[in-house]
Amino acid sequence: MFVDSHCHLDFPDLIAREDEVLANMAANDVGTALCISVKLEDFPKVRALAERHPHLWASVGVHPDYADCDEPDVARLVALADHPKVVAIGETGLDYYWQKDAPEWQRERFRTHIRAARETGKPLVIHTRSAAEDTLRLMREEKAGEAGGVMHCFTESQDVADAALELGFYISFSGIVTFRNAKELKEVARRVPLDRLLIETDAPYLAPVPHRGRTNEPAWVVHVAEEIARLRDEPLARIEQACTDNFFRLFHHAQRPA
Q: Using one digit for the tens of pLDDT, what is the confidence trace for 203-255?
């Protein structure tokens, strides 16, 4: 069984095809997916997806790119996470690519999520873009390692990967690792310890080769696993098993399908 550790099935391009998307998952042996929250306003849709389907799970959080939205506090995140289908806090982190002024509100929001994760005992789903130094600094300051989590859609250097691993975090690779020009990222994928490796789609974004440019979906996480197996000269079945085991170890509130 493959697991898509990060997707956005509530987004319009996918929710409109819910039955088809889930059927495609089944046809490609993708047995579980984690549906990621990006705004509190939309969280009920994410949670409802997980409630409708036993093999889907949810996170709760506010993405760092959303400036004008309902701002979370620790108590609210903790309350919303108190649900059997909510297994993670996030998507959270820092993004200085789109928010070029490196706003303080982003850093405070990130701190809020880390504190909520520590209180709930549910791991963090961390987004970082053009902000690795501050991301790692805040993770250390707020003791994010006590909650654990994953650096999702990883595109940073080996040094950043090593620092995150030292904090106890997992590293998740998306379809970007299949892109021809992602040479440095491919090297990181070769070197991440097998017991800290995750795969994802970030659907509907970042469709892997051979579907690049199309609307991504969880069924295509298989291509991410295939590329990582090729890069590491490992059997695909070994990557599949390791990533699935890692998912259920990290997101320990999620139940493995029978």
A: 999 999 999 999 999 999 999 999 999 999 999 999 999 999 999 999 999 99
Q: How far is residue 148's CA from residue 10's CA, in Å, rounded to a whole number?
A: 25
What pTM was computed for the model?
0.97
AA letter at 69: C
In this structure, is the dihedral angle defined by the CA atoms of residues 55, 61, 64 and 66, taken in order, positive or negative?
A: positive
Residue 202 burial (CB count, 10 A): 23
Q: Are 151 and 92 in contact (CB under 8 A)?
A: no
Task: State pLDDT tens for residues 123-169.
Answer: 999 999 999 999 999 999 999 999 999 999 999 999 999 999 999 99
Q: What is the 3-state secondary structure (H, E, C) of the chain?
A: CEEEEEECCCCHHHHCCHHHHHHHHHHCCEEEEEECCCCHHHHHHHHHHHHHCCCEEEEECCCCCCCCCCCCCHHHHHHHHCCCCEEEEEEEEEECCCCCCCCHHHHHHHHHHHHHHHHHCCCEEEEEECCHHHHHHHHHHCCHHHCCEEECCCCCCHHHHHHHHHCCCEEEECHHHHCCCCHHHHHHHHHCCHHHEEECCCECCCCCCCCCCCCCCHHHHHHHHHHHHHHHCCCHHHHHHHHHHHHHHHCCCCCCCC
